[in-house]
Amino acid sequence: MVDVSMTAPVAALAAAVAAGAAAVAFDHRDEPGGLAATAFMCAIAWWSAALFGEAVASTEAGKLFWLNVQYPATAVTPVAAVAFVASYLGYDAWVSRRRILALAAPLAALTLLSWTNDYHGLVRTGTDLAAYGSETVLVRELGPAWWVGWLYSQVLLVATFATLAYGVYDSAPAFRVSAGLLLVGAGAPWAAQFVVLGGGPAFRPELLFVLTGVAFTVAVRRGRTLGVTPVARRVTLEAVPDPIVVVDRSGRIADTNPAARAWLGDDVAVGAAVADALASAPKVRAAYRRGEAPDEPLSVEVDGETRFVSLSAVPLPTLGNRSQGTVLLLRDVTDSERNRRDLEVANDRLQTLTHALAHDLKNPLSVADGFTDLATAGDEAAIERVEGAHDRMFEIVDETLAAVDHPDPDADAEPFSFAALAEDAWRTAETGTATLTVAGDGSYAADEAAVRSVLENLFRNAAVHAGTDPTVTAVALDGGFAVVDDGPGIPPAERDRVFERGYTTADDGTGIGLASVATLAASHGWTVVAGRGRGEADAALDGETAAVGDGAAFVVRFGARPVEEVAAPVVADPDDLVAPSEALAAEE
């Protein structure tokens, strides 16, 4: 039998050590588990001090008083232990304030029952003083409420120590010693009670709180236990700017970090089914359900802005043969994805400019080649045509370079005469035996070089597809212009493909001209459409009605006026116009 005279000094020592440990914990109150550890050690200090009061009291009433003083500490200790271990191991999201209060409620009720035991006898059915040597101790006959409270406390403590033991096992080697100290120090008084209940030495297990306080102080002071937790949750979750969602093996969210909640919304809450919580990010949810990380970044709407993430699913370590779940890592790759897309657009634009340059140079080259023999023979008109073709080639090169260096040439555009520009474009376009008519004139403030390139391509297209000796009419319109021929027109079944790159119905066609027109127009914010000519230009800009063909009609609109209104004077059916596909228009 242990000499009970040792109870008072050892209890006083335990109270002092626990108070010191509580002070140490309070210094680390901002660390994970710091506040819970402070509450735990304060409760042990309270408990030990009240035990000292019980030991030195000489009357039954005095001992009962100090016994009741211990009960608040007995209610706080197991609940604080749960909260501390949960925070220490990174599971504090599971232990909310409401849950803490719910866990403490039964033990708080036991405290009230102990204080009012004289009225009901549910905690103690009887008490007496017994002499042990020169000392007396309080002997209790325990009632049903005490046993219920004791069993409830054991459930909390078993769960706490089992979780802490797993934390020791799962910790990095550098933290196992300090985590093990906490386990041994906190578990010693708990294990000692079973020794006493089993008929072992008669002593108060609470005296081992000395070991608890010492172990805790050493772990915090030497091992920096509260500075860096075993799973380093503060680093892996709270401080990481990318969204992290921890999913348990049942498919429910076990934890999240602030970035995940900011990106994916409040539905990403602990305990929610991950499939439901990711409703605001359907592409991420679909990838999670497939069980594989996608090769391409996924788009996520965050505060009305489209962001891009790469998704990684990292399995958690298994416990035995059972998976503990998965960590979903959503890495923000918005900047790199936008840079990649910008690069793709730049490459597409460069490719478009290359094709357009090659195609546009073909027109003046063909003209120069066609008039070279006549120029060699001394034909002055032919010499002028060759020189004009050479000048146009230099202009095309300069225009292409300007388009690369200044992608918005319309901003500083000077007004020009449409009729004069149409005549110049005709002279440098490969038009064979076709004839040009210009209907009306207008002054437009647009990129003159781009308009000329559009006209050259439309003129050459008409010369190739409108049959033998076609008449091509360039018409000035209110808000744009049109090029109409008197050929067979565009077959209705082919209209949707006429602007596609590579599409042509001519044996010697390249399929580039109309695609270049569509791309060039789109790059300047213009609209180009195709239809069938109406046979006359109704009230051209000079106020006169002009005869035009009833073949293919191409209309380019500059401003915001509806394109059907701009095209109405020259097309047979403004409601039947065909525009380039969105994909083609987006090449710029």
TrEMBL record:
Domain Histidine kinase, residue spans = 356-562
**Any one Gene Ontology BP term:** osmosensory signaling via phosphorelay pathway
According to the UniProt entry, what is the EC number of this protein?
2.7.13.3
| Keyword hit for Lipoprotein | no
Kindly list the residue ranges recorded as spanning the membrane. Answer: 6-26, 33-53, 73-91, 100-116, 147-168, 175-196
Catalysed reaction, written as an equation: ATP + protein L-histidine = ADP + protein N-phospho-L-histidine
Keywords in UniProt for this one?
Kinase, Membrane, Phosphoprotein, Transferase, Transmembrane, Transmembrane helix
Q: Name one GO cellular component term.
A: membrane
Under InterPro entries, the record lists: BphY/WalK/GraS-like (IPR050351), HATPase_C_sf (IPR036890), HATPase_dom (IPR003594), His_kinase_dom (IPR005467), HisK_dim/P_dom (IPR003661), HisK_dim/P_sf (IPR036097), HisKA_7TM (IPR031621), PAS (IPR000014)
- Class of the enzyme per the UniProt entry, highest EC level: transferase
Spell out the molecular function terms from Gene Ontology. Answer: phosphorelay response regulator activity; phosphorelay sensor kinase activity; protein kinase activator activity
Which domain of life does the UniProt lineage start with? Archaea
- PANTHER family named in the record: OSMOLARITY TWO-COMPONENT SYSTEM PROTEIN SSK1, TWO-COMPONENT HISTIDINE KINASE
| Protein's UniProt name | histidine kinase
Source species, please? Halorubrum salinarum
